[in-house]
Each structure stands twice: as structure tokens, then as C-alpha cells.
UniProtKB/TrEMBL annotation:
It comes from the Bacteria. Pfam families: MR_MLE_C (PF13378), MR_MLE_N (PF02746). GO terms for molecular function: hydro-lyase activity; magnesium ion binding. The lineage of its organism: Bacteria, Pseudomonadati, Pseudomonadota, Alphaproteobacteria, Rhodobacterales. Residues 150-253 form the Mandelate racemase/muconate lactonizing enzyme C-terminal domain. This is Mandelate racemase. Keywords: Magnesium, Metal-binding. GO terms for biological process: carbohydrate catabolic process. InterPro entries: Enolase-like_C_sf, Enolase-like_N, Enolase_C-like, Mandelate_racemase_C, Mandelate_racemase_N_dom, RHMD-like. It comes from Gemmobacter aquaticus. Its cofactor is Mg(2+). CDD domains: MR_like_4 (cd03329). PANTHER family: ENOLASE SUPERFAMILY, MANDELATE RACEMASE, MITOCHONDRIAL ENOLASE SUPERFAMILY MEMBER 1.
Amino acid sequence: MIITDVEVRVFRTTTRRHSDSAGHAHPGPAHQVQQAMLTLRSEDGHEGHSFTAPEIVRPHVIDKFVKKVLIGQDHRDRERLWHDLAHWQRGSAAQLTDRTLAVVDCALWDLAGRSLGQPVHKLIGAYRDKVLAYGSIMCGDELEGGLATPEDYGRFAETLVKRGYKGIKLHTWMPPVSWAPDVKMDLKACAAVREAVGPDIRLMIDAFHWYTRTDALELGRGLEKLGFDWIEEPMDEQSMSSYKWLADNLDIPVIGPESAAGKHWHRAEWVRQGACDILRTGVNDVGGITPAIKTMRMAEAFGMDCEVHGNTAMNLHVVAASKNCRWYERGLLHPFLEYDDGHDYLKSLSDPMDRDGFVHVPDRPGLGEDIDFDFIENNRVG
Ligand SMILES: O=C(O)[C@H](O)[C@@H](O)[C@@H](O)C(=O)NO
Ligand SMILES: [Mg+2]
């Protein structure tokens, strides 16, 4: 059970996803990017793996923090190891981020699952083995036939319903799109989707993240007329009081925070302040599966749903181990991309969705990622 080794393997992978100046993804030509796989080994020969961007597990972070905390420790002590690593953050000069905590925590959960031959959600205490997904559409763009007009969104939404999705979330247009942001265009896209899919498909929006209170209010009031289920991140989440003001002035549920720092502690303050109607967590956003589960359980104690941000196996296991969330966020999706093609370094999807819109948790041990170790070795960098 003792951790004897921490290894990072950086490898090339091909993707058609490109990030814009705000960090949002859009389709583009296939290109190679680098990905990292963190591996933890225990003395009894078991391994746990998790994936992240290479800079999150760069040598300085691994040598100065991760190895110091993990080597020689019992890998089953995830709660203590999470706190031990988190306590290094304050003095790390902002070098040890929540993303690093997340990838280490995920590798520990994967190690536990692989060593016991059990999927992670069963170790946490499963609530279900399948969950409805909503199709999370990429931010709008200016690509001909892409997501450039409200009609484009409507057409794409019809495609998603035919694929089986029972819920759809729109990320609308944001800079660097030349004319964005624009509340009225956001509402036109939402209206086009509602018109296209009818009244029974659940709809949500994730809008420009820096609207003013009055813009967000106008957007929310328009969504209420369209029967949307929630409004997400329409303002800077650093202003909790703005979200309390919005939640007090809208009937449509306000969900958050997604990107705000502070892990489960800060999310407790959002609940206490009434800054949201639905809480939000995400393994990468709060520093791991361990704090994500704490956030879920805290929301439950307040009678609140807590929806999980993001796809991938780590988030799927949090959803599968929780009663108080309704969806798995499957995406990000675009008319020019085939999400079900997956990744070249995984032999199969971690979140396969059936024709009825249910994502089934793989019953493979650990996080259940079907890793192509030969591909990773053959595409190692350095
Ligand atoms: O790039 C991002 O910020 C994320 O992909 C984000 O857009 C998306 O995952 C999201 O907000 N989901 O709710
Ligand atoms: Mg979001």
C-alpha cells in the first residue's frame, strides 16, 4: 500500500480542439498537443493513473510538492494526503494549483480502484451506474455552418436530440467573436433552440462570464419565458454579492460557482449567502474527487442540487456517486466535431452514451479509463 514512485509521462496526442483567447474551445484543423499522464506506483505493484496538461505536473511541482507528500505514504490515506498536499499551496507562491491537487487525487482514487478491482464510484458509494447527459455545446463562433447564427444552434440542437440527448446547454457567443457579447443574440440562439427541440428537452445556458447585473437580469428574464432550467456564469464569479442579487431577482435557478477559487469552502459560502439556487462543483475546479464529493454532500444537507462541471471519467464518478445532481455534462460539442471519436490515447470512451441519452459508467477498475499504454509509449516526448 506504500507509494514508492511518482512518474509523469508526457506524450503527443492529436486533437481538433483549439483554445481562444478566453480559453474556450473551438474546432479547427487537426494538430498535435502534449498531454501528461501522472502515474503513482505502490510497493505491491499496483498503479494509478490520471491525465492533465504537462505544466500542471511539471518537474518543479512534482519534485517540490507531490513527491514530498506522497512517497512512503499509504495510498489509501487519501483524505490525509489531500490535506497534506493542500497545505503546501499557501507557501507555494501560487505554484501548486488546485489542478495539481486534482490530478494527484484522481490518480490516488484510480490506484485504489485498480488495486481492489473496483470502479471508483463503487468505492465512494455508488448511487447509480448510468445518468442522463446534457449535450454541452461549444461557445459560438463565426464559422460558416458552425455556430455562427441562432439558426445554426437550432439545427445543431435537432441533431443532438436525434443522437439521444434529453438536455442541451448552450455556451453562447463571447469575445474574441467580433460582435460579442450580445444579450439579444444570446436570447435569439436560445429561442431558436427551444423552437427546434420543443418543450420537453431541458435547456440551460452558460453565457458570457462578464455581463453586468442588468445585462444578466435581462438575459435571465428572457430565459424564463423560454422555460430554461438554469442560467450559468453570466457574471464574474468573484462577485458573490452580484450573484445573490441576481438570484434574488430571478425565478430561473442561478447555478454556480464553476470557476471561482476556494474549493468546497468557498462553495459553502455561496450557499450560506444565497448566491445560487443550484450549487456547482467540478473535479478540476475544487482540487479533486475528494473535495468534489464534500461539495455534493454539503449541498445535499441544504436541500440543493449540485451539478458537476465537465466531462471525463473523474467527473462521471462524482455524478454516479451522488443523488443530488441530475446530469452529466457531455461535451464540448460542435457540428464540425465527432465527440464519440474520443481520444487517440484511450481505446474506448470513458462516457459512452446510449440512444436514450444515458451515459453508462464503465465497470472497469479505478476511473475506468481504457488507456492505450502502447500509444503513450510510442508518442512519448523527451
Ligand atoms: O473552457 C472552459 O472554460 C470550459 O470548457 C467551459 O467553457 C465549459 O466546460 C463550461 O463552462 N461548462 O459548464
Ligand atoms: Mg460552465
